[in-house]
Write a structure and sequence with these properties.
This is Alcohol dehydrogenase-like C-terminal domain-containing protein. By secondary structure, the chain is α/β, with parallel strands linked by helices. It is built from 4 helices and 7 strands. The relative contact order is 0.13.
Length: 170
């Protein structure tokens, strides 16, 4: 196996990963970007977009799904848009920042939860729990216990970001 960064190819050259001016990859991992899409618009989808698309796809988000997105930054924006595009009935944006509400709703969120102002916000999911929650926030203010309580019994929680305080790789 040859990783994308700092591994040697059989000819002795070193893979440079994201610092490359060119890259070799197996054809099953590449596809052409349509000329109608500018690189500056396509580039974020190749990293942040794939980061959230993968768990949405793997957990079969579609009609009937109820999805929570914790953290409305770069990953969260894509999470909201993709979950709605995949047909989720409910996409709940969960944030600590009130200024994110309008953008989240414009991108397709059906609900917006402001954790720091709505004391009992998690209780609102007792009747209609979420099937999947993606944590895209790297904040230590994320209320993990409350977030997990919003899941249905066999629901899934996918952490795409962790606060530094919980990270073992300091």
């Amino acid at each position: 196996m040859i990783d994308t960064y700092n591994c040697r190819w059989p000819d002795g050259s070193i893979a440079q990963g994201g610092y490359s001016t060119a890259i070799r990859a197996h054809k099953q991992f590449v596809f052409p970007i349509p000329e109608s899409i500018e690189s500056k618009h396509a580039a974020p989808m190749l990293c942040a977009g794939l980061t959230v698309f993968s768990p949405l796809y793997r957990h079969k988000v579609g009609p009937g799904s109820r999805v929570g997105i914790v953290g409305i930054g770069g990953l969260g924006h894509f999470g909201i848009m993709f979950a709605r595009a995949m047909g989720a009935d409910a996409v709940v944006a969960i944030s600590h920042t009130a200024s994110k509400r309008d953008d989240a709703l414009k991108m397709g969120a059906t609900d917006f939860v402001l954790m720091k102002e709505e004391r009992e916000w998690a209780a609102t999911f007792q009747e209609m729990p979420l099937d999947l929650i993606l944590i895209t926030a790297a904040s230590s203010a994320v209320e993990l216990t409350a977030i997990v309580s919003c899941l249905r019994v066999e629901g899934r929680l996918v952490c795409l970001a962790l606060p530094k305080a919980t990270c073992i790789f300091h």
